[in-house]
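Listing S7. Sequence submitted for prediction.
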Amino acid sequence: MLAVPGALIAHGLITVLKFIAAVITGSSGMMAEFLHSFADTTNQVFLLPGLRFYKRPAPKKHPFGYGKERFFWSFRPIPQHIG
């Protein structure tokens, strides 16, 4: 279960470096890469609650437990591109 925190740290570092490169160079392509990396980092943040919630014990209301909840948190709305 270290994949999500590890990816969060890696994506966060990459995001910061791409932002610095975009500011220094003024490159719109690098700014687009920064935004893409920021989206990846945000996705990892959404996965963190799922890692915590799915380990809860099964109560009477949910007799099969919360195992699939770790996958629910990976869903995020897909941005609609205009144009």
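Caption to Listing S7: primary sequence and predicted structure tokens for the chain studied. Residues 3-72 form one domain. The CA atoms of residues 47 and 73 lie 5 Å apart.
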